[in-house]
Write a structure and sequence with these properties.
Blueprint (H helix, E strand, L loop, with lengths): L9 H13 L2 H8 L3 H15 L4 E4 L2 E4 L1 H23 L7 E7 H18 L4 E7 L1 H9 L5 E5 L9 E13 L7 E7 L6 H12 L5 E8 L2 H9 L4 E5 H6 L7 E2 L7 E8 L1
Parallel strand pairs: 3-4, 3-5, 7-8, 7-9
Antiparallel strand pairs: 1-2, 5-11, 6-9, 6-10, 6-11
Helix pairs in contact: 1-2, 1-3, 1-4, 2-3
Length: about 270
């Protein structure tokens, strides 16, 4: 519970790309003009974000895992597509990248992800918009925005390319860490997030001795955290939002051991 939950940022993915391309952390460090320790740290941070091993030992050498290569192969085309659209098309020069964040992702690390991108590419003017996830995704589909960063939505248009870029655990925000039964407030059933969480929660509850009854539902996770923080009800919300709103860490309970997570996706045309 002490490790920060962030979306994988471009620096971390670039470190993996350089390692795979050059074969060692030393050569990757030279390519990116960083120290070898910085490359190792970034690969470790990426591993924490994605939740699977990035490197493994093969004799005396470290090599990328199959999971890491699959992840890189999935994400890299989108990074390349963004670069190409901005830099390489002389007939369609784009000086502005229109990005839509969902409101809850903005609270949970999305704004940091955009800031990392801006630091890496300071000459790109990011035009940032914030909406509920379905609105953000539909705006990408209609061509109003270039890309979105949102929770997984089961009704995402099939015309969009969708990359899963992270998973974030949901936690109990409790008035007491000693109880086994919780009556909670959480996000409304019609939300984009809940469409993916409902079955996950049912499976997770079968694997724990904790009982959870959803007492109320509300339109935003931010309000869930604030209600729990005020002591009105226990809450069920993403860890990143709880941290961004300074919910007490000693009352933040991962009773599902990471088995209940919301997916973060990057839909683009």
């Amino acid at each position: 519970m002490n490790e920060p939950i962030n979306l994988p940022n471009f620096e971390l993915i670039e470190a993996l790309r350089a390692f795979v391309l050059h074969g060692t952390t030393a050569k990757a460090a030279v390519a990116l003009r960083l120290s070898q320790a910085a490359i190792s740290k970034r690969l470790g941070c990426l591993e924490d974000c994605v939740g699977f091993p990035i490197l493994h030992r093969q004799g005396r050498n470290a090599v990328a895992t199959a999971e890491a290569l699959t992840f890189l192969n999935t994400v890299e085309p989108h990074m390349t597509a963004i670069r190409d659209a901005i830099y390489q098309s002389k007939s369609m020069k784009r000086e502005r990248l229109k990005v839509a964040l969902s409101e809850s992702i903005a609270l949970s690390g999305g704004a940091v992800w955009i800031a990392d991108f801006q630091r890496l590419y300071p000459h790109i003017d990011v035009e940032l918009h914030v909406h509920r996830a379905p609105v953000a995704i539909q705006n990408v589909a209609s061509g109003n925005y270039d890309v979105a960063v949102t929770p997984f939505w089961t009704r995402t248009p099939k015309s969009l390319e969708v990359t899963e870029i992270g998973k974030e655990p949901l936690v109990l925000l409790s008035r007491s860490s000693n109880q086994q039964k919780f009556e909670v407030i959480t996000i409304e059933e019609s939300s984009a997030t809940w469409s993916d969480l409902d079955d996950q929660l049912k499976r997770a509850l079968k694997q724990t001795n904790v009982s959870i009854v959803i007492n109320q539902r509300i339109e935003s996770f931010a309000t869930v955290v604030q209600v729990a923080k005020a002591g009105l009800l226990d809450g069920l919300a993403p860890l990143g939002i709880a941290r961004s709103l300074a919910f007490p860490p000693d009352k933040t309970l991962d009773v599902f051991s990471g088995k209940l997570k919301r997916k973060t996706i990057l839909p683009c045309r």
